[in-house]
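2024-03-11 09:14:02 INFO queue: dequeued item NUDIX domain-containing protein, len=246
2024-03-11 09:14:02 INFO validating residues
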Amino acid sequence: MTETLPPTGIDLFDVERLLLTEAAEPPLPPQDAEARDRAWDMAVRANPTLFDGPVVACGGLERTGPRILRLSWVRVTYRHYALRRVPGATALPSLFVNVVQPTDDGRVLAARMSPSTAAPGRWQLPGGSVEPPRDGAVLDESALAGHAARELAEELGIGVAAEDLKLWVVTRGENGSIGLTYLAPALPEATLRADFAAAVAAERVQGREPELDDIALVRSPEELAGLAGPHADYLEPIVRRFSGCR
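2024-03-11 09:14:37 INFO prediction written
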């Protein structure tokens, strides 16, 4: 028996299995499509680094059994989320992966977004939006873990096999956005800092601004609160959960 999950703010769902099905994008009235495009064009003028690439949105999330969630996903582009700025229109929730990267002494790595990103100065977990599968590939649990591993490598320079990442919790937060949070194997602080420094240097050698410009290692929600700047809505609940599980 399935159970539609009610919208109640920042939610964390225990999960051991994720069932994925593709769904079609809901039809959009022409006036909403025109308003979306105008809002997107304004956003690009304000931040020329925005790119209307392919991305996966969440079409629905429901519980089908103990620790089993069914997630329907929809192919859209980043332009779709400009619907959030259109009065009366409804945008699908975004879908992203992120990673809890612990240290071997029990702290969690938080990362700060660079000034050139869509969320400058925001502290969050390493991760990013899910991209749709290509060339007949499927979007399944293995593919999602692969997404998370690539984000960890690209943003922090940390090499971890997808099979070593464990889907730890599913979050639902602002705008109903769904986050798939993976737990990575613990690493020494020195390794994390050296890998991050190397990743930042490699980006700058290529003439690119790194997506992340700083990291911090926190042991508790109280330490997290000491990080100046905005925080991703899921960050405090995730740190609290991790610190309580040790």
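2024-03-11 09:14:37 INFO annotate: Residues 1-8 have pLDDT under 50 and may be disordered.
2024-03-11 09:14:38 INFO item closed
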